[in-house]
Each structure stands twice: as structure tokens, then as C-alpha cells.
Design goal:
alpha/beta; 7 helices; Nucleotidyltransferase, domain 5; 214 residues; 5 strands; 5-stranded mixed β-sheet
Length: 214
């Protein structure tokens, strides 16, 4: 988080701070180095560089990251939303990974929460996120997009998705699992103590900010 803060384009005195780093880099390279960035098909996308710098330090509840977990054996998928401060997971099964179904799932899950904890949502550049403006219009959350091939910019989501894969390994056919199974996995992960939370559970941390069902 310290390195992300210092290297953020909006950080004041950025050049001087970089020079003070123990492992100061002359130039930070993204994990997509060497790859030609494809033109995204996301209309009116707002890049992560325009996201408020305060999102980085996880000081406020209500900043989310979103992603999709796909199935190689069918068109079904899982939509994964993770809150940055608490690592709270909202997991939803989709019949297909389309923009329409993804948008509906995000709106459905986040509109259950108070407006005050729907601050920002950071997404990848998959076409399933093309209707981000509809999400903003429906529930007031501002959507931002990570750079292509920079999954570390949504590190909380990537980490929690790894936990989801312990229950639904790669190769799982999401068309053959039930919504009840997905809800069970969501509950197990949200009630799992995390070292990064001082061994509290995501649910315990989140419950300090919003009323949630165990």
C-alpha cells in the first residue's frame, strides 16, 4: 500500500518520495510489460488514475472491487464483489457472463446496502463491465477501471477469488452448482478470520459499519 501511494500519479512530492524508498525504482513497470495494450470496449470508462487517492489507504468502508470467475465447461460464471477495508465478499452466480446479467447482479447486491457504503467500485476491462454507467445511475456508486493486465490494482478481489477457488476449483461447471452452494461459500469466507484484519473476520469488520446477516 505504501508503494502504491508513493507511485500514484496524484501524490504530491512523488519524485522525492521515490528517492527515499529503500528499494527505490527509477520506473515502476506494470505486470503487463511487453504486452500490447488492447483497445478496451468500455464506453466512457474512468481510469483508476482518476480514482480518489484516499481509496488506497483503506481508511473508509465502502470502496469495492469487482471481478468475474468463469467456467470452462459452460457459459455460467460467478460475479465477485469485495469491499477493500473489510474484505467482505458478495458472490453471485450468473447464467452467463454478459454485461446485462453482470450489471443486474452488481446492482442487486449493492443496493441492499446503505448509500453511505457505496462509494466506489473498481473493475477490470472485461466487456461484462461495459454497462458501468447503468450501475452508477441505479445506485450512485462511481465506477473506475484498472489498467489492462494490472490485476494487482484490484488485489483484494484477486486474493478473495483465490479463496473462492478453494471451494470451486478451476474446471468447476458453474451451471451445475446452486445459488445455495454459492451463498454457503460466501458465508464461509466472510466468517473466516484473516491475518490482514488482525484475525477478525470480514463480517466482524464490516458489521462495525453496516448491519449484516451472519
Amino acid at each position: 500500500a505504501i508503494y502504491q501511494y508513493i507511485y500514484h500519479p496524484k501524490t504530491e512530492g512523488r519524485a522525492e518520495l521515490i528517492g527515499l524508498l529503500v528499494r527505490g525504482h527509477r520506473k515502476r513497470k506494470s505486470k503487463g510489460i511487453g504486452r500490447k495494450e488492447r483497445k478496451t470496449k468500455i464506453p466512457n470508462r474512468i481510469p483508476i488514475e482518476d480514482r480518489p487517492l484516499s481509496v488506497e489507504n483503506r481508511s473508509r468502508f465502502g470502496h469495492w472491487e469487482g471481478d468475474s470467475l468463469v467456467s470452462r465447461k459452460s457459459l455460467a460464471a460467478l460475479n465477485s464483489l469485495v469491499e477493500r477495508k473489510s474484505r467482505l465478499l458478495l458472490l453471485t452466480r450468473l447464467q452467463r457472463k454478459t454485461a446485462e446479467l453482470t450489471t443486474d447482479a452488481v446492482i442487486l447486491r449493492l443496493q441492499e446496502l446503505p448509500e453511505k457504503v457505496r462509494r466506489t467500485l473498481t473493475l477490470d476491462n472485461g466487456t461484462e463491465n461495459a454497462q458501468h454507467e447503468a450501475i452508477t445511475e441505479a445506485i450512485g456508486i462511481q465506477c473506475y477501471f484498472a489498467r489492462p493486465y494490472a490485476s494487482w490494482q484490484r488485489g483484494s478481489n484477486e486474493s478473495v477469488n483465490g479463496l473462492v477457488r478453494r471451494y470451486f476449483p478451476k474446471g468447476t461447471d458453474f451451471s451445475k452448482i446452486t445459488d445455495e452452494q454459492v451463498a454457503k461459500v460466501e458465508s464461509l469466507i466472510n466468517n473466516r478470520p484473516r491475518k490482514c484484519l488482525a484475525y477478525k473476520t470480514p463480517l466482524e469488520v464490516a458489521s462495525a459499519f453496516v448491519a449484516l446477516r451472519p
